[in-house]
Specification:
It is a single chain. This protein is an alpha/beta fold. The chain has a single domain (27-222), classed as Rossmann fold. Helix content is 30%, strand content 30%. The protein is built from six helices and eleven strands. The chain has helices spanning 29-48, 66-77, 94-99, 108-121, 169-176, 192-199; strands spanning 2-6, 12-16, 21-22, 54-60, 81-88, 126-129, 132-138, 150-155, 179-187, 203-209, 216-222. An eight-stranded mixed sheet has the order 6-7-5-4-8-9-11-10, with helices on both faces. Helix 1 crosses helix 2 (66-77) and helix 5 crosses helix 6. Bound molecules: S-adenosylmethionine (SAM). The site of S-adenosylmethionine (SAM) has 18 residues, from helix 2 and strand 5.
Amino acid sequence: MNILIKTADGSNTLFNDQIGEHYHSAHGALQESRHVFIEAGLKHSLITNQDKEELNVLEIGFGTGLNFLLSFAHCHEIKTRLNYKAIEAFPLSSEILESTAYSEYVSPYIWQSFINGYEKAIHATQQLSEYCCLEIFHGTFQQFNTDQKFDVLYYDAFSVRHQPELWTNEIIAHACNFLNKGGIFVTYAITGNLKRAIKSCGFEIEKLQGAPGKREMLRAKKIV
Ligand SMILES: C[S@@+](CC[C@H](N)C(=O)[O-])C[C@H]1O[C@@H](n2cnc3c(N)ncnc32)[C@H](O)[C@@H]1O
């Protein structure tokens, strides 16, 4: 069961009582999403690939859609096309998404486009706006495969303590495989094992300051 709770920055998250973990940092869901995925991931990729007219993002663990919403809002604002693919083993209902009150962090247009297209995106790619397409693969990341390559990968699985099967060398290599050369892998977590696993897939590692309340996070760039 998922229980809605307020995090330290005033934004909501869900607590999954089977896994025993929150969907976002209890120090601040909104802060974490902005810091790790938007600033260190999406915006960094846009700055380093200024010649690109569109951005292909892959997210592992769509959950409430907060990372997607903030990505959609930013790309809409700067008029850059966003093709967003996400993987989610246990999609939430639209009612649960609406209960998060994440509508407060984006314009009514972005929010309505998201809510109108969300459930349909679990079955087929949805054009949510002139600048944004969303597709959600309903299944596990272990089952997921595609020939498509992405510019940015948001790795937002539950932590290694609660879901070790999503942090093995094999599954990290599976994720790395979906990035273009120059592509960016970002996650809120950082461990010695994770760094070694990503490096061995031909990535350059950066240890960045973590979101408020967390010391460090990881960003990696595919160099071969
Ligand atoms: C930390 S939460 C992600 C939070 C999400 N990015 C958000 O903004 O709400 C992890 C997500 O991974 C999903 N998940 C769990 N096991 C999975 C698996 N094997 N493959 C894909 N998704 C999985 C969970 O249902 C949950 O939605």
